[in-house]
User: What shape does this take?
Amino acid sequence: MAMSACPACDAAPLAQTLATQPQSNQIALSVPDLHCGLCISKVETALKALPQVTDARVNLTQKRAVVTGAADMPIAPLIQALAQAGYPAHELDLTSLSATQTDKAGKDILMRLAVAFFASMNVMMLSIAVWSGASDATRDLFHWISAIIAVPAIAFAGKPFFLNALKAFRTRQLNMDVPIVLAILLAMGTSLWEVSLSGHHAYFDAALTLITFLLAGRYLDHRTRSAARSAAQELAALDVPRAMLIKNGTHTSVPTASLQVNDHIQVAAGGRIPVDGILIEGISELDRSLLTGETQPVLATTGMALSAGEVNLTGPITLRATAVGKDTSLHQMADLVAIAESGRANYTSLADKAAKLYAPGVHILAGLAFAGWFIATRDTRTALNIAAAVLIITCPCALGLAVPAVTTAASGRLFRKGLLVKNATALERLAQIDTVVFDKTGTLTEGRPEVQNLNAFHDNALRIALALAHGSSHPLSKALTTAIQAKGLKPAPLRNVTETAGQGISADWLGTTVRLGRADWIGATPFDQTAVYLDLGQDMPQAFLFQDNLRQGAQGAIAELQSQGLNLHLLSGDTEAAVARTSKRLGLAQWQSSVLPQDKAAYVQALQDQGHKVLMVGDGLNDTGALAAAHASISPASALDAARVASDMVLLGADLGSIPQAWRTAKTATRRIRENFQIATLYNVIAVPLAIAGLATPLIAALAMSSSSITVSLNALRLK
Amino acid sequence: MTILSYLIPISLLLGGAGLAAFLYTLKSDQYDDPDGNAQRILAPDYDEKPKA
Assistant: This one.
């Protein structure tokens, strides 16, 4: 890009060298808890105190820290140091994220906007002198100075429009940029012609203001999208794509992408399975809730087929890869999304609809004005001047601002409430919904078990259970430990505590063997609900029953959406009993259990075929097809990558209460967009007859353009 | 009206200087962290250069 417009930049070698530093020794960390000036200095001091760190810099706006240091600097100590300082941090993948690269496209628009604004203000100053009565030589001088400023400024600032129009011209399509470019070029051409004949009217100011307003709209649009994009990338970068490969007896950590079929891979307890495979060593339990929605952990023994995306709960396991990369079940699920998504691509945004009506209309109007005046006066100059005035006055400054101003205001508002709008037309689509389909596990519920029947046990039994569960990392044991500790009980003295991976824990208590674990291991009759069984060596084994807690705000959100007359459905891959319980608690009448992923997508599709507009809310891989098929979709930040990619909006906070809020905001935003179009049309209805009648002066054009753009922006701000 | 021959160039020059200054700040990444910059001016530690 030509930087000749910025001689001062050559005097900024500092910024240049900093920007070109090699990135191999830079690590970006996401620090979500950054919020004040004190945080900045705390985090920077904590990082700089480490010997391997040469520099650390916090970006408060993006809530990130960029650390510079030795090329082989490990990440774990950095995260540990921050954790000690009280700031949990995650590594960000610099390859999938241009974290240290600043936003080039945004800067480019901003630079052109600055040039256009500078030029338009100067030309406007000269034009005001002409409108207030400068005549003859003075007027000609002012017009010539205006031309000298305007021609290069327009050539530079209007480049994005020229390129877009050229592209549209080549593919023989009509987009919003074609009438814009035509208006600018025609206005410049006729004005230069007029000025050379020392005519009265020149439209340099109008052409420049037009570009300024349109660039402002485009910048707003870009900023909303890039904010959403960088936050979405940040979420994607949280899934660290590494796996533990076992080759010739040695363990090496390699990128998941480099794994081959038949590789042996170890997955630690708590780790996510990276590829499809067969379990060859170890015994454990698997959490498949993200894939299927089941909340009950599944026992995994040697020879069992494992799918990428499942979480290994208890012991370390080794698997032999059977499918990697694009062949994994995880990726095939993503293909389902691609098919479903093509349906949504057919949605035409309000702006596109307006452009479709607008672009041909303007050209026809200007053409007719030219023809009419040419026939009436046989004077090309007058006819061309009037055609230029018509184009300039109808030019879509307000239209260019109408949508971006509203979406920027709405997305900003939603972002502060913890909702990230990823897609440009998401708000419009969300405003149209009449049906909401929820997933259960991880969406309406937290996906985290909690003990229900603690009071059915004696304190003594609880003390033993606590002692048994204490050392285990199994999520059910952890939940049990927290619950019993909350009652203020101390663990019973046990001896020989041993954990059998995937089965349970046993120990010696005053001479009797006590056990805590799965039903079949203990020898108890299993319940149809998530449970852990306690065997005290005497009576019948007793069960601790677990229930998945509702997510914060779930009840309120459901009640509010229901009271607004929306149709609510619950679809889950979980067992009938669990789904029935959740629906009852939330008061949902329409629910289905044990739903397969394809059926979820089909269910949503069937609803849409009946003419309903569906909002899908889900987090699992089993939801991705449905998320993509639905008219609009929301997924929580805890969702898997694929689900987040498939959805229009991501819920950053834990509170589901922002869903009805988003719906309300979307409705107001769409109303504002429509109002803005009406305002823009109203101005045209007044100004176009004047232009066609040949009564429009550059002053009227400037007034119409500025006042319509300002009203439209103010109307958008009313959203707050 | 000869005063115009001074005033117009002067106004253009001043405006151009403002534009050049803005472009310089834009080029040297000074708008990357507005929230952080607002906080940093209150920090007691010495902090001499802006950075990406």
Chain B has a mean pLDDT of 82.
